[in-house]
Amino acid sequence: MSGDLFASAAEERLARRAPLAERLRPMRLDDIVGQDHLLGPGRPLRQLIESDRLSSVILWGPPGTGKTSVARLIARVTAQEFSEMSAVNASVKDVRELVARAKARLGERDVGTILFLDEVHRFNKAQQDALLPSVESGLLVLIGATTENPFFEVNPPLLSRSTLFRLELLGRDAVRRLLERGLEAEEVSADEDALELLVDRAGGDGRHALTSLEIAAALTVGRGDGRITLEDVEAALGTKALRYGRDDHFDVISAFIKSIRGSDVDAGLYWLARMLAAGEDARFIARRLVILASEDVGNADPQALTLAVAAMQACELVGLPEC
After folding, report:
1. Helix or strand or coil: residue 145?
2. CA distance linking residue 118 with residue 68, whole number of Å
3. Residue 85, strand partner residues
4. Nearest 10 degrees: Cα torsion 101, 106, 109, 111
5. What is the pTM of this model?
6. What digits encode the pLDDT tens for the residues 27-36?
7. What is the model's pLDDT at position 4?
8. For the chain, domain boundaries
9. How high is the pLDDT of residue 12?
10. pLDDT for 10
11. Are 76 and 104 within 8 A, CB to CB?
């Protein structure tokens, strides 16, 4: 009995000390900001959750877009047993033990099992294959969350047995609503320019926005005025690495080439700066410029190809930052 009391007290204290983003996890579907294409009234994922008829799904989206929040909301409404596992530290043995418990539960109580597997892309082929028979038979309903492209990172047999739902980066209005909730939870206010900077620098990542807000709020404690200023936000933000994964590698270079093709100088410079700031290989960019000069510019400017080849050779021989 005393052990239960201590455990309960520890959970309450942990909840109070949890990061702001954790404390503000939505309790209802209507509390989720953004993702209206999936969770708005009458949308497919919302209907499946509310009717408790969910089959195996893969939630794919950038960090801070609500994948874990959606999964934990499912845990609140489902009549099935909900188990959570992280692919970062789980093993095949853990999967087999979970499957054994799911079989026993189904036989004894006629209750199914939902498995939320966070970072599913971190499971190797053997680990994913261990899930396959249970997902195929319906013994487990899999909710896999991933920030990586599942067409590359999830085994095709497992992917073919799951419905793919893509979560998008949060829009400015959605990030602002999150921040307003955060201000209320932290019992502080913020100057408009400070709030705008938080929205701008969030990059569609709700968790990053709330984490930055929490730090900025902490910086006001010494002043005692409870008002977040632009200086507080700038200090809280520091520097944030650009989101630049495998998909961005192709998307951004495509945007760069299309900007040049459309004679949009400002856009071309922006996408070039974004690639370089994210650490893209300058040789890759130079090679694409050679292709552009040959295919898109051509005889309109015969010197374009010569210049592009010279730039590529300079990158090959010298590299950044000199080239």
Report:
1. strand
2. 8
3. 117
4. 100
5. 0.74
6. 999 999 999 9
7. 58
8. 1-29+170-240, 35-166, 246-317
9. 61
10. 56
11. no
Fold of domain 1-29+170-240: Helicase, Ruva Protein; domain 3 (1.10.8)
d(CA 298, CA 290): 11
Dump the DSSP string for 161-217: TSEEEEPPPPPHHHHHHHHHHHHHHHT-EE-HHHHHHHHHHHTT-HHHHHHHHHHHH
If one looks up domain 35-166 in CATH, what number appears?
3.40.50.300
Q: Which two tokens stand for residue 146?
A: 């991933």
Residue entry with tokens 């040789």: 283
Place of tokens 């960090």: 63
* Gap between the Cα atoms of 280 and 247, Å rounded: 13
* Contacts of residue 53, Cβ cutoff 8 Å, sequence gap at least 6: none
Residues of the chain below pLDDT 50: 241
Q: Is the Cβ–Cβ distance between 76 and 184 less than 8 Å?
A: no
Tokens of 119: 């970072």
What is the residue type of 232? D
Give 3-state DSSP helix, strand, coil % of the chain, rounded to 5.
Answer: 60, 10, 30
Q: 182 exposed, middle or buried (CB, 10 Å; 0-12, 13-18, 19+)?
A: buried
Shortest CA distance to 26 belongs to which of 67, 63, 60, 62? 67
Q: So what's the architecture of 246-317 in CATH?
A: Up-down Bundle (1.20)
Q: Which of 153, 142, 151, 232 is nearest to 186 (CA)?
A: 232
**What pLDDT, in 10s, does the model give residues 163-186?**
999 999 999 999 999 999 999 999
The residue written with tokens 């709700």 in the block is 206
Report the alpha-carbon distance of residue 186 to residue 81 in Å, rounded.
34
Query: Chain centroid to CA 23: how far?
Result: 18
Tell me which residue of 214, 225, 191 sits closest to 23, measured CA to CA. Answer: 214
Q: pLDDT digits over 135-160, tens only?
A: 999 999 999 999 999 998 999 999 99
pLDDT of residue 248: 81
Contact yes or no for 231/254 (Cβ under 8 A):
no
Half-sphere exposure of 106 (CA within 13 A, CB side): 15
Residue carrying the six token digits 């700038």: 234
